[in-house]
């Protein structure tokens, strides 16, 4: 599902937001923003198929 979102929806939309409560494999060329208790705990740019 994540690959579908990353590959297909980004062809149509400039930005796609995926909010999840479980760990997933991050799609390449995305930005990961991790929240803890409603506050930003980490921001990370995923540039390739790197592991979480």
Classification by helices and strands: alpha+beta
Q: What is the topology, as strand order, of the major beta sheet?
A: 1-2
Biggest sheet character: 2 strands, antiparallel
In DSSP terms (H or I, runs of 4 or more residues), the helix count works out at 1
- Radius of gyration of CA atoms, rounded to a whole number: 11 Å
Termini separation comes to: 17 Å
Structural domains: how many = 1
SSE sequence, one letter per element = HEE
| Oligomerization category of the chains in this entry | single chain
Question: Which band does the percent of strand residues land in?
Answer: 25-35%
Mean pLDDT metric: 83
Low-confidence stretches: none
- Give the number of DSSP strands: 2
Instruction: State the helical fraction.
Output: 10-25%
Overall geometry: globular
Relevant terms:
alpha+beta, 2 strands, two-stranded antiparallel ribbon, globular, 52 residues, single chain
Describe this structure in words.
This protein is of the alpha+beta class. The chain has one domain (2-46). It has one helix and two strands, in the order αββ. It has one helix spanning 2-12; strands at 30-36, 39-46. A two-stranded antiparallel ribbon has the order 1-2. β1 and β2 (39-46) form a beta hairpin. The longest helix is centred in the first third of the chain and has 11 residues, at 2-12. The model has no long low-confidence stretch (mean pLDDT 83).
Summarize the structure.
Helices cover 21% and strands 29% of the residues.
Topology:
Blueprint: H1 2-12, E1 30-36, E2 39-46
